[in-house]
Prior knowledge:
- The protein contains 13 helices and eleven strands.
- By secondary structure, it is of the alpha/beta class.
- It has two domains: about 5-175, Rossmann fold (3-Layer(aba) Sandwich); about 175-370, Dehydroquinate synthase-like - alpha domain (Dehydroquinate synthase-like, alpha domain, Up-down Bundle).
- Strand 3 (about 40-45), helix 2 (about 45-60) and strand 4 (about 65-70) form a beta-alpha-beta unit.
- Helix 6 packs antiparallel against helix 7 (about 195-210) and helix 10 (about 270-285) runs antiparallel to helix 11 (about 290-305).
- The longest helix has 21 residues, at about 215-235.
- It is globular, with a radius of gyration of 20 Å.
- It binds glycine.
Amino acid sequence: MTEIVHVGLEGRAYDIHIGAGLLDRAGDLIGPLLHRPRVAIVTDETVAELHLDMLCEGLDRSGIARVAMALPAGEATKSWPHFERVVEWLLEQKIERNDVVIALGGGVIGDLVGFAAAVLRRGVRFVQVPTSLLAQVDSSVGGKTGINAPQGKNLIGAFHQPSLVLADTAVLDTLTERDYLAGYGEVVKYGLLGDYDYFQWLEEYASCAAAGDMDARNHIVKRAVEMKAEIVMRDETEQGDRALLNLGHTFCHALEAATHYDGSRLLHGEGVAIGCALAFDLSARLGLCPQEDPTRVRAHLRDMKMKAELVNIYGELPDVDGLIGLMAQDKKVQDGKLRFILARGIGEAFITSDVPPDAVRAVLADALAARG
Ligand code: GLY
């Protein structure tokens, strides 16, 4: 069964379809957007091998012609040289203002292709076909697009909403367990930030979804996407509430920088999961949430066999001052003050710049001390 979540942004509204087997139906679903039966697909080499044929067959069935380009897989692709290559290739393929570009892949491809679509001929429409759990529940929805700069991640980009998102939950079967669970770090974030019942449901059923139960998997993706859509409709360009989606991310970005963005040590979603646990430590230390909450958050992460604390990151980490220094470089610094997403309980996150630095230091000192 396919679920549909509508993102009702005025003039930029679109649907997110969630279900198994959507690649096969891509022609039916994308066809109505097209002025002529031709699209350009941008993907990466790993995803191309696994899923490009299926997408092409889905388009063929509706008589939609396509050209396709595959970039190297990995974060390094989210950069000016590959961006330039994609934009020039789309121009060579004579993609016109009324055409549609398809981004088939995880967060790197979605962000890069979305940004290319935003600037090509001053903006063409694009369809997100996310193939990782992280992209299905987070990066393919909401219109943040962009690439990394030498100065930091995601520093160059634009808000450009997709015209359609096809989250085919069957493709998640091809993810490694580690990649699936890293994406799950973003899933658990939604329960923690705004829906206690969802978190409770995850405690009970998320392991079934990880083991391949499609109904459970569809529910996981649908509820996360619904929450993201609600937040994006309230605050598309992150003037306020959208920052709630950054729960765990201030800690996460410092840990990613500390591990030199080396995915063998820490994937983004793993950093989000650890960051969420640290945000609950900080909230409990400040007396904002019950003392049991951080323990409950970690218990669930451990049940899912996920990284839950700094002890789980192998290799050297900076000391407290080093980590604080990395946090201070975060995009969320405003007027020199760090903005944190803290919680009054599970499902009750809020945004604040009013966090005593000593409390942050104490949380990090405890977390580092546990590494021995
Ligand atoms: N990934 C956070 C956001 O879309 O705002």
